[in-house]
Amino acid sequence: MAEKRKASCTGSSSEDDDISPREKVQKNSSGNFDFCVRNINQHAFGRREIEIAEQEMPGIMALRRRAADDKPLRNAKIVGCTHINAQTAVLIETLAALGANLRWAACNIYSTQNEVAAALAEAGFSIFAWRGETEEDFWWCIDKCVNAENWQPNMILDDGGDATHLMLKKYPAMFKMIKGIVEESVTGVHRLYQLSKAGKLTVPAMNVNDSVTKTKYDNLYSCRESIIDSLKRSTDLMFGGKQVVICGFGEVGKGCSQALKGLGCVVYVTEIDPICALQASMDGNRVVKLNEVIRNVDIVITATGNKNVVTREHMDKMKNGCIVCNMGHSNTEIDVNNLRTPDLTWEKVRSQVDHVIWPDGKRIILLAEGRLVNLSCSSLPSFVVSITSATQALALIELFNAPAGRYKSDVYLLPKKMDEYVASLHLPTFDAHLTELTDEQAKYMGLNKAGPFKPNYYRY
């Protein structure tokens, strides 16, 4: 089973079939054909993957059990654009159990687990995703989720802002009917704030990325584990003594730094923010400009959410065998387009691993073509995704059921009470027992005994 999962994660399950899924006619066992996946016949294996993920996702499963009778998402019609893997499948099936109708596409062309997409299609979901989509396929899939017969979506669950972007640009009348958007990535949240600033955001949106549970657990703890997994699976690298530069010391960068230092790497950090730079320094990292170390480092990791962080000029200076990868959501951080020039040779070594060779024979190792390396080259810990998924589900429930006027056309943070609820759903896994305030203590602190326990400005 472990070997099969590894094969799936490195993409081999998609590359034995050269026919585009868009050219195939596929039906599930119920005769439904409103989906487009690589191979519907992989559904049994995908179902086993989902069942394994459910065992490691106690919070979202508890939410499914508690809210299934109330159906808080009855009449919700959700367009989803996220990574499609076993863990997000648990979220998709939870939202359906809570009453929602769904159409779903992938937010990344490399992160889809084909067998999981097949299992969801077999279960009757309208899934449009496969591993290794082209750019044109990517937008076609999202379009199929937004624009369908007898379908008027009223909610968007986005990861990166692409579904929101497409609907706003291509279907503005449909976009005005949306009750709320839930966004979970740095990149997507940035795009939402830009829309709001320009006066183009006509619906309320929930910034889940900056909720405490998402920021700490998905961005910090998850990346701390998955960066090592990604690099090991794709390069079989020995970490001890390697020099690594991490561009960006937000929660993702902090997680990567902790993991790599723990395995004996020498870690450098680049930062634009003096607060994050001071944190990096106090954690024992050297804060540098990229040009100061680019000739000597063995690994370059981007985690900024920005564009052109690693340029062609930087890559020209890298030493032979340098590994370059991205841990941010968007593929804009590494200037991959400027590597596709006649003077450089691309050599595919294995799935998601390319050697880019210079005329003098120097080569760098580029992972996942600059896309999100942990979702392209490995898998995420299901437990962490359970925390994020529960946060997303609660945000959808909140926006969908909110009385008129509670949320205006702006970007909101998840209410603190919901953050605490998500955390409490996961505590039983660790047999953790919370201490309760006495009436006297609660009065002294000016708190409600049931929470929230911290003010909104508190930084965890």
TrEMBL record:
Entry keyword set: Hydrolase, NAD, One-carbon metabolism
The S-adenosyl-L-homocysteine hydrolase NAD binding domain, residue ranges: 219-380
PANTHER family for this protein: ADENOSYLHOMOCYSTEINASE (PTHR23420:SF0)
Organism: Cryptolaemus montrouzieri
Record-listed NAD(+) binding positions: 250-255, 271, 374
InterPro entries on file: Adenosylhomocyst_ase-like_sf (IPR042172), Adenosylhomocysteinase-like (IPR000043), Ado_hCys_hydrolase_NAD-bd (IPR015878), NAD(P)-bd_dom_sf (IPR036291), S-Ado-L-homoCys_hydrolase_CS (IPR020082)
NAD found in the keyword field: yes
Region span, Disordered: 1-27
UniProt catalytic activity: S-adenosyl-L-homocysteine + H2O = L-homocysteine + adenosine
GO biological process: one example: one-carbon metabolic process
Cofactor requirements of the protein: NAD(+)
Family to which the UniProt record says this protein belongs: Belongs to the adenosylhomocysteinase family.
GO molecular function term, any single one: adenosylhomocysteinase activity
EC number: 3.13.2.1
Cofactor: how and how many bound: Binds 1 NAD(+) per subunit.
Pfam assignment, any one: AdoHcyase_NAD
Enzyme class name: hydrolase
Pathway as given in its UniProt record: Amino-acid biosynthesis; L-homocysteine biosynthesis; L-homocysteine from S-adenosyl-L-homocysteine: step 1/1
Protein name listed in UniProt: Adenosylhomocysteinase
